[in-house]
């Protein structure tokens, strides 16, 4: 037996259990394969992220030094430095006490593990997360990364879920309605405005809405109340709705146009199918033709693209959270990147990426449930 035959036989032996599983349970094997793919993608994403942060100029210790220099230039007292590390290694009471010495910077890098190659740092991080279930501590604030993410995550999820519900609901209502008005002036006007807001830069629309809020005083210029839900739940709910109205409107206008046009075009395609003519020939009412038959087939492209829509909302909320000072995970991510806080950046990125990938897996499962014609063969 030559090497080629040996490799072929070994591969067949290893893949035999998986092939049997795929034959007996095609959908389950598909979901399992997607989960494995998701884990591999997250691993490669984290590895690439550590490498990119290594290529970026400077590190978190340099950021600390820069902050100390800025504070020293402003004449502020920084005696003791950050986290008690500000004493100059030479000792004494000169003005140099407020800055890090080269030795102290090296000690800080060793403490944070930044003196190791990036792949060593990554595998140490993986070991800590998988074995000890610990995301580490922020290199800047020294707070647990898990606590920082948990404190911001719910805000972003709530905002994006509200936006997704509004976009989905109105997209289906308007898409189905305007498909019945195809070619009319109303349909032309709706298509124009949908294209206009879909193509309009979201960041510019956010800035314009913030200027509108600042000039008129009708809405707050920030997107979050200045008190917590625990203090006054009912008051917080109404205040939160008031604060997020303009950011939510921006997200809605940017997302509803493309989704509405997709549903409208899918409905028009379905209405031209032979089975629709057969249903009409049997005397089925137009309402049943639209809602019971054609409408169900519009779910397929929406479910397929819903994961991308959710990813787009999370990506767009980064700008929204920065401009409107919304305490979400996107703003936390921005601050972590600017400070080169690798532990916080990695945990944020992996968490958001995992949410998006899980959303894609859920959309695939829903697609198989909605459309019985789909059979996953691997």
Work out the strand percent.
under 5%
Oligomer: single chain
Q: In which range does the helix fraction lie?
A: over 70%
Q: Output the radius of gyration.
A: 27 Å
**What is the straight-line distance between the termini?**
31 Å
Q: What's the β-strand tally?
A: 0
Low-confidence residue ranges: 76-98
Question: Average pLDDT, to the nearest integer?
Answer: 76
H and E string:
HHHHHHHHHHHHHH
Count of runs of 4 or more consecutive helical residues? 14
The major β-sheet equals:
none
Overall 3D form: flat
Overview features:
mainly alpha, 14 helices, single chain, 378 residues
Give a structural overview.
With 378 residues, the protein is mostly helical. The chain has 14 helices and no strands. The longest helix has 39 residues. The chain is flat, with a radius of gyration of 27 Å. 24% of the residues are buried. About 6% of the residues have low confidence.
Briefly say what this structure is:
With 378 residues, this protein is mostly helical. It has helices spanning 3-24, 26-55, 60-73, 102-112, 118-132, 145-179, 185-199, 202-216, 233-271, 274-281, 286-297, 299-323, 329-338, 342-370.
SSE inventory with pairings:
Blueprint: H1 3-24, H2 26-55, H3 60-73, H4 102-112, H5 118-132, H6 145-179, H7 185-199, H8 202-216, H9 233-271, H10 274-281, H11 286-297, H12 299-323, H13 329-338, H14 342-370
Helix pairs in contact: 1-2, 2-5, 2-14, 6-9, 6-12, 6-14, 7-9, 8-9, 8-12, 9-11, 9-12, 12-13, 12-14, 13-14
